[in-house]
Amino acid sequence: MIVNSLSLCYHNKLILAPMVRVGTLPMRLLALDYGADIVYCEELIDLKMIQCKRVVNEVLRTVDFVAPDDRVVFRTCEREQNRVVFQMGTSDAERALAVARLVENDVAGIDVNMGCPKEYSTKGGMGAALLSDPDNIEKILNTLVKGTCRPVTCKIRILPSLEDTLNLVKRIERTGIAAIAVHGRKREERPQHPVSCEVIKAIADTLSIPVIANGGSHDHIQQYLDIENFRQATAASSVMVARAAMWNPSIFLKEGLRPLEEVMQKYIRYAVQYDNHYTNTKYCLCQMLREQLESPQGRLLHAAQSSREICEAFGLSTFYEETAQEQDARRARLLTRTSEEAEEPAEDISGVIKMSVKFDRRAYPPQITPKMCLLEWCRREKLAQPVYETIQRPLDRLFCSVVTVAEQKYQSTLWDKSKKLAEQAAAIVCLRSLGLPEGRLGEESTSLHKRKREAPDQDSGGPRALESAQPGELCKKPFVTLRSGEESPLEGW
């Protein structure tokens, strides 16, 4: 999915603000339906995003950024590609650029959160903590403006003094960003404190780039016409709406607010269509219901423990079943279409030694695995530790792993239901190709099993013991160097 336009106009726009747990794909699409021009995703932390892998989800017709634990951190679709802004939490210029480059072909803009006062953001030097480090602000924004092809923006809060605020925003403008969003409250202030329209106006009068006014939901914005009144009060180019849109996304509709029941049903349809996790769907619906949470429907929502039960609570059971059947049929068609590729990973694996094997835990003694045997053999032969490269097939979420030992790659042609099982299968292929014992019950060599039982009586606490260990002598979990350069305990123990 490639964004055709390299620029995003921030003049005279209605914008859905970034909101944690709220700004996921269903809410963004709903806001677009009701008239929002630009939608921001929730703040996503750079350290989480740089671990993600971009996956094209052909069943949902989305692009997913998937964490190592298979959790979808960010999901987007073609419908919003020219109007979604990716907001990140960051305190490091290089990490910020890495994230921007990861997502830039799937979003319309990149934003840096410099206004969130919550501890989860500020404790890492992110969010509002950046306001006290203008040098780092400048470094991050300069790096992003020069390094990504998307327009870069930031969202700030005002400082204790007007002079300091104006000095900061002028410095930010010089980095070359496309626009700046200003929440008209100080870092320590909360929604019950009045928003400082006059400070936002002073910023708008000072800068030549678009200023986006934010923070008006509590005192100023209850209906569509209030958005324009808030814009005029702040002299801003555009207005960013947060809680008023969370309560009812039809706030962007020129014709006026739609009935809440209609809005919630439309939201649920998007949530089911795009496989939104039911806990997130439930949270957003609770924000819409507000004082109606104790109503019969509110109690049904509170009791729901799945997307199916949420649909039942809102009279959408038939829609849920039809959507699930449609997605199952689409998944089956895609699997049929790619059946000839089912035995091969998508990556180039020429020169790989392959076998059709699977790891059966029942065939091995407790705590003995092929990966452990392979690691022990590599240490004994003074070879580099095995390196596992594992990929996941989006259609059925199965895994295939390739292990590299002494510059030779080994792979099982059978796909497995977990990363751990796929890596064990790859280790089996390697061991069998080299004619080495893999630790199975009944194998001639039992030293591995015997030594494993004796391990508690041995002193294996120091690094010297690890270096000289023979198969089975380890009492500590060995570590495998991953492709990313991180270390993790050897899986399968």
TrEMBL record:
SUPFAM superfamilies: dsRNA-binding domain-like (SSF54768), FMN-linked oxidoreductases (SSF51395). GO terms for biological process: antiviral innate immune response. It holds the Pfam family Dus. Its main location: cytoplasm. Its cofactor is FMN. The keyword tRNA-binding does not apply. GO terms for cellular component: cytosol; endoplasmic reticulum. Its EC number is 1.3.1.91. It comes from the Eukaryota. Residues 369-436 form the DRBM domain. GO terms for molecular function: double-stranded RNA binding; flavin adenine dinucleotide binding; FMN binding; NADPH binding; protein kinase inhibitor activity; tRNA binding; tRNA-dihydrouridine20 synthase activity. It is an enzyme of class 1 (oxidoreductase). Keywords: Cytoplasm, Endoplasmic reticulum, Flavoprotein, FMN, Oxidoreductase, Phosphoprotein, RNA-binding, tRNA processing. Residues 441-493 are annotated as: Disordered. It catalyses: 5,6-dihydrouridine(20) in tRNA + NADP(+) = uridine(20) in tRNA + NADPH + H(+). CDD domains: DSRM_DUS2L, DUS_like_FMN. Gene3D superfamilies: 3.30.160.20, Aldolase class I. It is found in: Cytoplasm; Endoplasmic reticulum. PROSITE patterns: DS_RBD, UPF0034. Coiled coil: none annotated. Interacts with EPRS1. Interacts (via DRBM domain) with PRKRA and EIF2AK2/PKR (via DRBM 1 domain). Belongs to the Dus family. Dus2 subfamily. Catalyzes the NADPH-dependent synthesis of dihydrouridine, a modified base found in the D-loop of most tRNAs. Specifically modifies U20 in cytoplasmic tRNAs. Activity depends on the presence of guanosine at position 19 in the tRNA substrate. Negatively regulates the activation of EIF2AK2/PKR. This is tRNA-dihydrouridine(20) synthase [NAD(P)+]-like. The gene is DUS2.
